[in-house]
Structure formats: C-alpha cells, structure tokens
Amino acid sequence: MKNEILFDLEKENYGYYIHDELRIIEKLVFSGGYRYDRSDFTFNPGTPDKTVMDEELYTAGVNFNYYRNSYAYVSFSRSFRYPVLDELFNFITNTVDTGLLPQKSDNYEIGLRHYFSDDLYAHVNLFRIDTNEEILYNPAGGAFGFGANENLDGKTRRDGIEIALSARIVEWLSINGNYSYMDAAILHGQYEDSDIPNVPGHKAALGIDVSPGKGLSLALNGIYIGERPFDGDFANSFDGQDDYIVLNSKIKYQWNNLTAFLDINNLTDKKYSEFGALSLFSFPVETAVYPSPGINVLFGVSVEI
Description:
single chain; mainly beta; Maltoporin, Chain A; 13-stranded antiparallel beta sheet; two-stranded antiparallel sheet; 1 helix; 1% helix; 65% strand
C-alpha cells in the first residue's frame, strides 16, 4: 500500500468595519465606510507557519432623491477576494501554493432609477471595475505545465452598462426585463488586449408574471447569454462559446399556509452549454463544453407554520 500524504488546510478570519450616513439635506445623502480584514491560513504538512493575508477596504457614495421615489447615485468601493482553499491546493502536484495573492478591485458606479409612475420604472447603471492580481485558472500553468491557479500578471478592466425596466400593465399582469453590455479586457501583461475568459459581452432577460387570482400565479422568463471566450483561453486563440436563449416557467398555487409550485426549465429542450473550458488533458489543447440539462421539472410543496 502506497504512503499517502494527508493535508490539513485551515483558515481563520478576523476583521472590523465602520459605516455611516450623513444627510446634508432631506434628499441628499452621503455614505462612507472602512473595513479591515485578515485571514490566517495554515497548511499541514508543508508549511508549518501561518500564511497571513490582510486587506483594507473603502466605500463612499452619494444618493440624491430628485423626484418622488426617483433617485440618482454615484459610488466607489474597493473590494477583494482571498484565494479559497481549493485554489491554494494543487490537486495534480499535491502541493500548496502559498504565493497566491488576494485579488483586489476598484468599483466605480453612476446611475439613476426613475419612476414614471408607481407601476413603471427604469434603471440605468454605468460601471467600471478595475482588478489587480485577478485569480484565474491557467490550464498550462504550474511548475510542470499541468494547470494551476495563478494571479494574472496584468490589470483587468470591465466597463459596462446595465438597463432594467419594470412595468405593471394591469393588476394581474407585469413585465420586467434587463440588458447588460460589458467590455471585459486584460490591459497589461502577456495577454494584453485579450478578452477576459468566460465573460459574455451581452446578457439579457425578459420575464412575464401573471396572477389571475385565487392564489394562482404563473411566470415565464427568457434568458440570453452572448458569446464569450472559453475558460482558460487567455490568448483568445479559439472561437468563443456559442450564445444561447433559454426559456423557463414557474407555476405556483397558494392556499392558506400551503404553497405548491411547479418549475419547468428549458421549455424548448434546447441543447446548450453554460460553461466551456480548454481541455486539461488533450494534446494539442482542445475546447470542451459541459452540457446543460435539457427540459427538466421541479415540484415542491411547503407549509408555513
């Protein structure tokens, strides 16, 4: 029997934060906050001492209620993400990478939500997200080229716009929809000017809700996901993953404290893939897709006591 090495990976997290709002006038609010966060990682065997990661975060924003419930806003926030334990551990080489760094992002937003009436509003949001040390899986990374999680050697930028609309046509019928466009690119490093893998440029959704009464409600929604590079294709060497549209429905009936629902997903039984990546074990490297479920049904009953 071969000797096996068992790893004990632990993480302890500490932190504190402060946040406050200041109302200058009735309709104008300033907000801001600060957060300190620290994590101690321990890996046994391998590294007897702790690996410490800590970050300081900030947020600031202004919200102006310019007309009835309508408001405009501008905000900035600095966020982060520590590597998770599964990313620090390499399952192929059976080693721990203590050099993997947290990724840090600066998020800028400006937008408004305007209520044309109590039953109709539109929301527009412009954003920019700049990320350093972004954690991504590189199929050709690692000491032996078998794949590893790495910090990207260049800053990434995601510029985009989100548009949403919600309307209650009549008491029993409402429609809502949203669309987003994102330009996601690697700005520096060996993959400069490449699109970020697995990020679609276009996304959209449209939903219809019908409530005929007597506890019955029906919903139909469609989701569109545009083309995007395969996960791991930092150089954009392959054609992108296919775009797709999926239709889903939900029927719900509520009677007193009893609720029953029936979800029918992928109504048209469309063949599509939500996720695709470069194959890890093929030579030359090929693309691989993970098929998504065809038409499927979920039924349930809940009781509120």
